[in-house]
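re: ur question from yesterday

yeah so i grabbed the chain u mentioned. its 198 aa long if i counted rite. heres the sequnce exactly as i have it in my notes:
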Amino acid sequence: MSRSLLSVLLFIGLIFLSWNFYAQTKGIKLSELQPFAQLFESEEKEEIEPIAEPQKEVETQENFRIEEVFACTITRDTNEGDADQDICEGNAIDDIIYSVDNGGILTVTSGPPWLNIIDDGTSTVRITGTPSGPGTYTYRIDASSGSCSGEFVEGTITVTAPPSAGTLDGIQDICEAGTTTFTSTVGGGVWSSDTPSV
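ran it thru and got these structure tokens back, copy pasting raw so excuse formatting
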């Protein structure tokens, strides 16, 4: 190597050392200065976090079973007796028939002992019977099974004793099979009735 080349290299080395000393006293890193930064790139490599691949949102598909629930309806057969009835003592009630749809079951859960219950525990129930005496009687029919649980109907049967007609003054209603005594304080007169059996 020639002497002049050696001198140039020595001169550059001295400049570099003096510049390094100056930079350290000022808190400057030589690797951050241009053109020196390129010299130190291999020594100080900034840690770069790898770029995460964007995660695709995958829709999770669950199997759901949709069960259609139909409303439960308890209906009374309108061609038969009413749910609430007023009758005279000794007469039978008009048959009361209820039915339920959508797989329901009907059960008479309360009522007087003289009630006859036909087809209890099915989708159609019939109530018949002759009251044992005057009074107010209630009954209840509950539905169960399927969507019918908790549904119910109630009714009242009012039984009236035949009245004593007493003194008749004009038109007066009395129960069938009731009796009355006709008397008159005056002689003569005519008794009449629209019913031939009276």
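noticed a couple things. Helices lie at 3-26, 36-39. also The longest strand covers residues 135-144.
anyway ttyl
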